[in-house]
């Protein structure tokens, strides 16, 4: 099924151009995003290193296999929490910037609608 083009002759109303504001907040958001991925990479490297060095340490049999791997598991959980927290902070900053932009755009459209009456 083919769509028929709009032949009403009316051009769609252009949306007002919204300026980009809050450059520093965008930078802070990107900084938190980079911190999140650095934390994730450091966590993976640390967990691998900790597990290997813990297993190579020659722990006595009485402690079992849990003793050398437990610190790495705790580090993995901590690193995951850190990653999610940094990434969520980055996204929250972007969400607030978008919320402000949408509010400003809605305000401009409503003012235009009121003035046209």
Q: Main attributes?
A:
117 residues, mainly alpha, single chain, rod-shaped
Explain what this protein looks like in three dimensions:
The chain is 72% helix and 0% strand. It is mostly helical and 117 residues long. The protein has one domain (23-115). The model has no long low-confidence stretch (mean pLDDT 84).
Helix fraction by DSSP (H/I, runs of at least 4): over 70%
Span between termini: 40 Å
Number of domain units: 1
Main sheet overview? none
Strand content: under 5%
The oligomeric state of the chains shown is: single chain
- Describe the global form: rod-shaped
Overall average pLDDT: 84
| Total beta-strand segments | 0
Structural class: mainly alpha
Number of helices, where a helix is a run of at least 4 consecutive DSSP H or I residues: 2
Series of secondary-structure elements, N-terminal to C-terminal: HH
Rounded to an integer in angstroms, the radius of gyration calculated over CA atoms is 27 Å
> Low-confidence runs (pLDDT<50, min 5 residues)?
none
Q: What's the gist of this structure?
A:
This protein has two helices and no strands. It is mainly alpha-helical.
